[in-house]
């Protein structure tokens, strides 16, 4: 008698807890996929005007890249793994597209201008695609371009060896159209073949 009276409320609580858990997990999942929601209304807000210094020491703006697709990656030359990996992924993707690759300008943007001088950037990018353009600039120029591309970066201090600090940064590859508008982005886990396939498709169908 007592048991049957207690059971229903317990069951109700259990069901309520399960529903709460489900709601929470759905909420977490939707938050996790937030970056991908850039395919929605956020598209137009990625990119825009910038003024930077290229690896030849010349001042360049978004207009310097007009007429070609731009494959853009933000990082820093002292990065131990993510940046070299991603630049190699970009290089491999571009090297497997045949002549279509000529329509795309790969760009590496330093978010560590303190150490990434023009010479350091020039030397670094020579390890990757021959047409890779390296960009650096003043702290303000870099901050402005990173903001336009919604790139997060932050210095991670090294107490023992201050000069060996690291940089935290988002590792997204952006594909911009010949008009400078955002088209697609690739996350860190996208492999070169998948990037190449998407690039080929986008370039072929671009009007
Ligand atoms: Ni990096």
Please sum up the structure shown.
This protein is α+β, with helices and mostly antiparallel strands and 207 residues long. Helix content is 37%, strand content 20%. Strand 4, helix 3 and strand 5 (133-136) form a beta-alpha-beta unit.
Any idea what the shape is?
globular
Using the CA coordinates, give the radius of gyration: 23 Å
Strand order of the largest sheet: 2-1-5-4-3-8-9
- CA(first)-CA(last) distance: 75 Å
Number of helices: 5
Strand content: 15-25%
Q: State the order of secondary-structure elements, H for helix, E for strand.
A: HEEEHEHEHEEEEH
Query: For the report, how would you describe the main beta sheet?
Result: 7 strands, mixed
Overall description:
The chain has 207 residues and is α+β, with helices and mostly antiparallel strands. Mean pLDDT is 88; it is low at 29-41. The strands form 2 sheets. Strands 2-1-5-4-3-8-9 form a 7-stranded mixed sheet. The chain has a two-stranded antiparallel ribbon with strand order 6-7. The longest helix is centred in the N-terminal third of the chain and has 31 residues, at 2-32. Helices cover 37% and strands 20% of the residues. The chain has helices spanning 2-32, 82-95, 118-125, 139-148, 192-205, and strands spanning 51-54, 59-61, 69-75, 104-110, 133-136, 153-156, 166-169, 173-176, 182-186. The structure holds nickel (II) ion. Residues 75-76, 79, 82-83, 169 line the site of nickel (II) ion.
């Amino acid at each position: 008698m007592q048991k049957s009276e207690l059971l229903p409320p317990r069951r109700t609580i259990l069901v309520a807890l399960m529903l709460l858990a489900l709601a929470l997990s759905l909420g977490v999942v939707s938050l996790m996929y937030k970056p991908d929601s850039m395919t929605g209304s956020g598209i137009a807000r990625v990119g825009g005007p910038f003024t930077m210094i290229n690896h030849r020491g010349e001042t360049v703006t978004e207009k310097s890249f007009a007429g070609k697709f731009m494959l853009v990656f933000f990082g820093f030359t002292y990065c131990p793994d993510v940046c070299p990996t991603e630049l190699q992924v970009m290089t491999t993707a571009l090297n497997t597209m045949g002549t279509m690759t000529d329509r795309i300008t790969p760009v590496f943007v330093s978010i560590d201008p303190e150490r990434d001088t023009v010479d350091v950037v020039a030397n670094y990018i020579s390890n990757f695609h021959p047409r890779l353009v390296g960009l650096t600039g003043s702290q303000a120029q870099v901050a402005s371009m990173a903001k336009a591309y919604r790139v997060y970066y932050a210095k991670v201090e090294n107490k023992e060896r201050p000069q060996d600090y690291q940089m935290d940064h988002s590792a997204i590859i952006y594909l911009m159209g010949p008009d400078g508008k955002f088209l697609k982005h690739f996350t860190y886990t996208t492999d070169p073949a998948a990037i190449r396939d998407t690039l080929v498709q986008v370039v072929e169908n671009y009007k």
